[in-house]
Every structure is written in structure tokens, then in C-alpha cells.
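Researcher: Re-running this chain for the archive, since the previous output was lost when a drive failed. Same request as before.
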Amino acid sequence: MGYDQTIDDAMTSVVTPLKDILIALGGKVLTGMEAERLVETDGRITKLVLRSAGSSPGEAHQVPANAVGDDWQPTRSSSGELYFVKRNDRGDYAALSSRCTHMGCPVALDPATGGFACPCHGAKYDRHGLPTAGPAILPLPAVAAELRGDAVHLAAAPLQSATEYAADYFVLACDVPGLKNILAHSEISDQALVSSVARLGVADPYIVWRIWLDRELRTQYVPFYTVSGYRYVDSIAIYSQLQPAYEDWARRRRGAVVELHAYAVEAHNVLPEAEIKRLMRAELDELIPELQGAGVIHDIYMMQQNFPRWAPGDHAGRPGVTTPFDNLFLAGDFVRLEVPANLMEAATMTGRMAANRVLAAEHLRENPIPAVALVGPLTTGA
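Model: Regenerated C-alpha cells:
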């Protein structure tokens, strides 16, 4: 396989230039907001209601009280949404959403400060969830936490500063938990669509761990490797050979920056973060022996669970790009496609297909979307 990668990070190379183009064309870009629900009127979607990012859990969730200590600890709802819970000095409980208030990425605990760090765009928060660095302006949203019997219950906080936007067309480009949350809060008349989305599932969690090391690494033949046979590590990206900012850091500090990926972590391998890091580091030392004993200067670790599930029988019931509403379209890597596209390519293709549906509805020329042939070269006929 061949790979192309951007020279700089995705925010610098893709997101910010795209945002600037949209604004120059008269568009409006909102950050620090989440889609809360759709509003249906007379068989069409007429409005989208927005709220502050991560302001409340999308479903009821509880944590055993005896598992909650004095430090923030992560907990996941049944849909995979991540929250942080702890017992405070007064003996009662506090909880925070993990959603960064910049663009909604899930933050991780930052061992260096005792607070939180966003791996997407560099936002940092203190141990109270207040922003201290990076692009975030608002604090991490608090989630109501109440002791009931032997469990701490997390409850949806009242929505604040809800904003309604009316539009002619709507394209929901979300991950599976996001789309399910939006439709769960919406009063949609078409139950087939609601059921189709409700049946979507997520795969096992995945891990991304980026490590800044205090030892130089000789130039590898390629900067990205896929490996097999290891408990956690499925691939290695050597960032100090991938992007100039990391190359510069490694040159100045005589170090290396390596990122380890675990694509699907089975339930029995979901261990405490410190133990997973220990095991992944041992696998890295085996894969690249010259890094054995190198010290970790800084690291960013995150475990997320938002990849779509691809179980037997799932395909037939998946929602497609078009929906029963003529002005509502879906895009993402979970959307049913009749062409062999997957992952990021599927997300891109379905986004372009949704845009073409809007163009067609406005009697404008659609943009061509290249795809591979659906029939192989060795077939002899129908």
C-alpha cells in the first residue's frame, strides 16, 4: 500500500484552510458547539438545535461508588461516551464531560499537570476543568453526579444557551455515538430511520499513544509500519520522520517522537492506563531495540470507542446517504455504500455524495466521484 500524509498536522494543513475558504465564501463556522437535536415540521427537517460542547451525557450512566477515588478517573457509558468522576474534599462526587470545548474531541488525563489535555488541537485544562492553554475558551462542562445507594449516577444537566439554526438542507457528518445521540433527542416521525440508526454499534476501543523520547532514532526505511502478532501494537508512526515540526524537535533535543496504535482492544485487554502503557512500551522496545531504555519526556495517550461496528448482518440495516426526509443526508464511515470504500475514504465519499444530493436538488451540476469498478477484470460475463 502507498500512503500520502500532510506536511503539517491536520488542523494546519486541512481544517484551518478549509474553514478560511468557507468563511471567504460567506459561510459561518461554529466551534465549541454540539448538535443536540433536529426539529421536524410538516415532514421536513427545519431546524438544528445546538448547545455547548459536551454539556451533558446523552444517556443515564452510573459508576460503582467504591470504584471512585479522590483523583479523576475515566468512565464510559454503554454507548462509549467518556466522562471523568472523582470524590471531592467534602466527600460528595463531581463529574466532568470529556468533550473539549474547542471542537468536541475527547480529552485525556494529563499526568504532568493533574488536569486534562486534548490530543487533537492542543487545548489544556487544569484539574478543575478550567482552560489553561490552547484554543479552548470554555471550561470542561460539569455533569451532575449523585450518590444513590452504592452507585454514583451521572445525570444530564439542564441545557443552557441552546441555539436554533434554520436551513434548507442538513448533512449530519458524525461518528456513530454522535448520530445516535442526536436522533435520540429528536422527535422524528420516521421510525425506520430511528431504528436503523439505533441498531448501529461501535467496535472495540482503540488506543493512540504518542511518545517524545530522549534518544535519537536512526532514519528508518519508511516512517510508518503495520505489525502483527502483538497484544496491543498494530502500527508505528515515526513522527520525527513524518512532519517538519517533529523533525525539528528531534534534531534540537537529540530525541525521537513515535506514535503507537492499537486498532481494536478486546474487552479483556482494557486494563488500567499505566499497565497498558507498560505493555505497549515493552512491545515498542522489541520492535525497535535501539529505543530500549530511552526516557519518556512527554506523552499523549487516548483510548476512544467511536469506530463503527462491522458485524455480520449489519450492512443491510445501515442507513444510507439519503434519508426519508428529502433535505436530510448522512455522511460518515458507517453509512451503507454500494462501492468498496471504507474508513476515511468512505467518510469522504459519503460527504461528497451528500453534497451532490444538495446540488441536484438545487438543479446545479454535481461533482464526479471516482470509484473502483464494481466488476473485476477476470469475470466472464453476467
